[in-house]
Design brief:
The chain is α+β, with helices and mostly antiparallel strands. The chain is about 50% helix and about 15% strand.
Length: about 210
């Protein structure tokens, strides 16, 4: 970002895949073969849609297992996967596969859902849009972070590592490029999944203001 930090935002076109599941075995088979964009959608949809809700919403897989199939133990196992600990969507996929296989091979409770309540795998195409906002120094950056579209916060924090395989989020990378190593490290060490998106924005602003 030679001339400063250009803030971007994103939009999504959601599409239904021709894959659905009525029990854990079919869910496992679906998770094995859907594109990585589907894994991302089903693990991040709540974060994208509930900006002000509880900071720890379940992913779609865990919600369906627990609330539709009634398999609470398995649902809790899938919900407890700490996405922040993984560096790629394939690693997350493998962890879900491992936990589902452990349940299935153990011979524990198996059940089909009621007809009409199958899990439908969805995916999405992401479109990235530049915004008019560009920061050329730290003060401008802090001011823009405090008022930019919430989708922009999401895009620059969540997308780089899992979707684009970058080592850190865009904010930390730019701060490091202008010599703000301490601020970059503090933002990089945040667990973004522990906040609502709005709460994450406030936390980042506090760090940039060196208030805490």
């Amino acid at each position: 970002m030679e001339n400063g930090f250009r803030f971007c935002t994103e939009s999504h076109l959601v599409k239904m895949l021709a894959i659905r599941a009525k029990n854990p075995i079919q869910l496992l088979e679906g998770i094995k073969k859907v594109p990585s964009a589907s894994i991302y959608y089903h693990t991040h949809r709540f974060l994208q849609q509930h900006y002000y809700a509880s900071p720890e919403p379940p992913n779609d897989f865990a919600y369906w297992i627990s609330n539709v199939l009634g398999l609470r133990e398995l649902g809790e196992s899938i919900a407890s996967v700490e996405i922040v600990d993984f560096n790629s969507l394939d690693e997350i996929r493998k962890e879900y596969i491992k936990r589902l296989e452990e349940h299935i091979f153990s011979g524990r409770s198996m059940i089909d859902c009621v007809e009409g309540h199958e899990f439908h795998f969805l995916s999405c195409k992401t479109f990235v849009h530049p915004t008019p906002f560009v920061a050329t120094n730290l003060d401008e950056f802090k001011d823009i972070v405090g008022k930019i579209y919430i989708n922009s916060i999401y895009f620059h924090i969540f997308e780089p590592r899992l979707r684009f395989q970058r080592k850190e989020n865009d904010f930390s990378a730019w701060l490091r490029s202008i010599g703000e190593e301490i601020l970059a490290d503090r933002i990089s060490k945040l667990d973004p999944y522990a906040f609502t998106i709005e709460g994450l924005r406030k936390r980042i602003v506090n760090i940039l203001e060196r208030d805490d």
